[in-house]
Amino acid sequence: MKLKEIADQAINVIKTRGTEGINNAELAEIVGTPKRRVYDVIAILRAANLITTERDGAGTKIFWLEKDETYKEEVQPQTSFFTSKLKVSTDGQIYNVANRGSEVVIELDDEAKLSIEPILE
C-alpha cells in the first residue's frame, strides 16, 4: 500500500475518533499497515499542524485538530540570510535537529515559536 493511501485512511479514522483520539497501534491495525508506516504519516500530519499527539501508557494517542472558521495560520515571509552563522531561539522546546547537507530541519513543541537571526562577525 502506498503512503498516500495509508495517510488517506489514517486521516479518516483520526477525524472519526474526534476528541476521543486513537492509539497509534490501534490505528496501524485498522489501516492494516505496520506501525512504522503510521509513524511516517503522524510525522507529516504533525508538521502540517493537523494533529496533536500525547504519550499514554500504551503508546501515542493521536487527536485531529479542528480549526474553526476564525482560525488563521500564522505565516511568516521566508527570509534569506547571507551569513555563515545563525542564532535560533524558541519559547518552547527543541526536540530534534537534523542536518541534511544543504538544509537543517528543526522540530519544536507544538505551540513553540521560533526566531532566527543572523550573527554578523
Describe it for me?
With 121 residues, the protein is of the alpha+beta class. The protein has two domains: 3-64, Winged helix-like DNA-binding domain superfamily/Winged helix DNA-binding domain (Arc Repressor Mutant, subunit A, Orthogonal Bundle); 86-118, no CATH class. 30% of the residues lie in helices and 29% in strands. The chain has three helices and seven strands. It has helices at 3-17, 24-31, 35-47; strands at residues 22-23, 51-56, 59-64, 86-90, 94-99, 104-108, 114-118. The strands form three sheets. Strands 1-3-2 form a three-stranded antiparallel beta sheet. A hairpin with a 4-residue loop joins strand 5 and strand 6. Helix 2 packs across helix 3. The chain is elongated and about 55 Å long. The model has no long low-confidence stretch (mean pLDDT 82).
- Average of per-residue pLDDT values: 82
Query: Helix content range of the residues, please?
Result: 25-40%
The largest sheet, given as strand count, sense and whether it forms a barrel, is: 3 strands, antiparallel
Q: Determine the CATH topology of the largest domain.
A: Arc Repressor Mutant, subunit A
**H/E element string?**
HEHHEEEEEE
CATH H-level superfamily of the largest domain: Winged helix-like DNA-binding domain superfamily/Winged helix DNA-binding domain
Q: How many DSSP-defined strands?
A: 7
Q: Low-confidence spans: pLDDT under 50, at least 5 residues?
A: none
Q: What is the 3D form?
A: elongated
Radius of gyration: 17 Å
What is the CATH level 1 assignment of the largest domain?
Mainly Alpha
